[in-house]
Design goal:
The protein is of the alpha/beta class. The chain contains twelve helices and 14 strands. It is globular. It binds pyridoxal-5'-phosphate (PLP). The site of pyridoxal-5'-phosphate has 14 residues, from α3 and α4.
C-alpha cells in the first residue's frame, strides 16, 4: 500500500466552475472572488472577508494595515510554519519568539506578559494545525496591554472555539483580524490563495486597496462604470489579488468543507482510540474549549517509545506510509540564526522533535487507516 500524508479533495465541480470563468472572459479578481468572499465571511461569521494570493501575503498586509513596521516587535510562536515569522520580517518588524503549551502546541498565555516590551505592537497567535489557540486568555492580555491580535488561522478553516458558552468558528474573528490559507495542505484549497476576515470596515477597505496597488477604485468598478473613471494611487501597495479561477474553485471547495471536516474528525477519533492504550504514543490533546478541524494529526512519542521519531518515520516510509515531522521551529532554521541568540524554548524544541504528523485525507479508506494503525502499533510496541 502507498499512503500519502494528504491529498486535496476535488472533482468535476471545481473544473466545471473554472471552465465557466474561462468562458466568461474575466479571469482575475472578479465576480467569483467576490462571491467566495461573501460565502467565506458568512461561514466564519465575519463582516468582511478579503481574498489574497496566500495566507502569507494576507498576514503581511494585515501587519501593514495596523502600521506595524520598523522598530516594532510582534510576539509569535517559533513553533509554526516559517511564514508566521517571515511576514513579520517582511514588514520590517521583529519577531519575538514565545513558548508554547506542551500539549496544544499553541502560544502559552502564561509567558506572554514576560515577552511584552515597550516596543511590542502585536501578538500573532497561530491556531496550530487547526487547534484553536487560547484566545480568551491571549485577548485578555492584549486588551489590557493595548496590543493588536492578528490570528494566523492558516490551518483553521472550520475549527471552532467555545466563546462565552457558544461555539464560534475561528475567523469571526476574535482578535482584530484572521488570515487563512488555501494551500493544498490545508482543509480547502484554491491551489494557492488566502483570505483575511475582519469586522472593521476601514481595515477591510485598506486591505482591498493594499492588494490592488493602492488603487482608489477597483478594476470592476471602473469596468462597470458608464462614465470614465480616473483612478488614483493613494499609497505604495502590492499585487495580492486572487484570480477568478481560484475564486470559483474556492466556492466548489466550500461546498465540500462539511464533508472534509466530518471525515477528518472521524479519522482523528479513530487514530486516538487506537493509539490511546499504547505507552509509546501520546495522541493530540483537544482542550474543552476547542473543536479542531485536524488539519494535521500530530502524535507524540513518549519517553517509553522503543524507537526514535526519525527511525519510526523511516520504518513507516519503508511500509509505504508517508508521515511528516512535527511542526517545525523557526528559531532553529538558518534564516533565523541572528534571532536565535537569547532564545530558550525547550518545550517548543521537544514538542517539535518528538512528534510526527500522520496521513489523513478525505478519500482515506478504513483499510488504509487500519494499515497505518497496525504499523504504528507494531513499531511502537516493545518486542
Ligand atoms: C501554511 C501556513 C502558512 C502559509 O500559508 P500560505 O497560504 O501557503 O502562504 C502560514 N502560517 C501557517 C501556520 C501555515 O500552516
Amino acid at each position: 500500500m502507498k499512503i500519502p500524508i494528504t491529498k486535496p479533495y476535488m472533482d468535476a465541480c471545481e473544473s466545471d466552475l473554472i471552465a465557466e470563468v474561462i468562458a466568461s472572459g474575466w479571469v482575475t479578481q472578479g465576480p467569483r472572488v467576490e462571491e467566495f468572499e461573501r460565502v467565506f465571511a458568512e461561514y466564519v461569521g465575519a463582516k468582511h472577508a478579503i481574498a489574497m494570493t496566500s495566507c502569507t501575503t494576507g498576514l503581511h498586509a494585515a501587519l501593514l494595515a495596523y502600521d506595524i513596521g520598523e522598530g516594532d516587535e510582534v510576539i509569535v510562536p517559533s513553533m509554526s510554519f516559517i511564514a508566521s515569522a517571515n511576514v513579520i520580517r517582511h514588514a520590517n518588524a521583529t519577531p519575538v519568539f514565545a513558548e508554547v503549551d506542551r500539549r496544544t502546541f499553541n502560544l502559552d498565555p502564561n509567558v506572554l506578559e514576560d515577552a511584552i516590551t515597550p516596543r511590542t505592537k502585536a501578538i500573532m497567535p497561530v491556531h496550530q494545525i487547526g487547534m484553536p489557540a487560547d484566545l480568551a486568555a491571549i485577548l485578555e492580555i492584549a486588551r489590557r496591554r493595548r496590543l493588536v491580535v492578528i490570528e494566523d488561522a492558516a490551518c483553521a478553516t472550520g475549527s471552532e472555539i467555545l466563546w462565552n458558552g457558544v461555539w464560534e468558528r475561528i475567523g469571526k474573528p476574535h482578535g482584530e483580524i484572521a488570515a487563512f490559507s488555501f494551500h493544498p495542505r490545508k482543509l480547502i484549497t484554491t491551489g494557492e490563495g488566502g483570505m483575511l476576515t475582519t469586522n472593521d470596515d476601514q481595515i477591510a477597505e485598506r486591505h482591498r486597496r493594499l492588494r490592488l496597488h493602492g488603487m482608489s477604485v477597483s478594476d470592476r468598478a471602473r469596468h462597470g462604470a458608464s462614465k470614465m473613471v480616473l483612478e488614483e494611487y493613494v499609497e505604495v501597495a502590492y499585487n495580492y489579488r486572487m484570480t477568478d479561477m481560484q475564486g470559483a474553485m474556492g466556492l466548489a471547495q466550500m461546498e465540500k468543507l462539511p464533508t472534509i471536516l466530518a471525515k477528518r474528525r472521524e479519522l482523528a477519533a479513530n487514530y486516538s482510540a487506537a493509539l490511546a492504550g499504547i505507552e509509546a504514543y501520546e495522541p493530540p490533546y483537544e482542550p474543552p474549549y476547542t473543536r479542531s478541524n485536524f488539519q494535521s494529526y500530530a502524535v507524540g512519542l513518549t519517553t517509553d517509545a522503543p524507537i526514535s521519531r526519525n527511525d519510526l518515520m523511516d520504518a513507516l516510509l519503508e511500509r509505504g506510509i508517508s508521515t511528516r515531522r512535527g511542526i517545525m521551529t523557526s528559531h532553529r532554521e538558518p534564516a533565523y540564526a541572528d534571532a536565535r541568540r537569547d532564545v530558550k524554548l525547550p518545550i517548543t524544541e521537544r514538542a517539535s522533535d518528538q512528534t510526527l504528523l500522520l496521513p489523513m485525507y478525505t478519500q482515506m479508506t478504513d483499510a488504509e487507516q487500519r494499515y497505518v494503525i497496525d504499523a504504528l502499533i507494531e513499531l511502537g510496541t516493545k518486542s
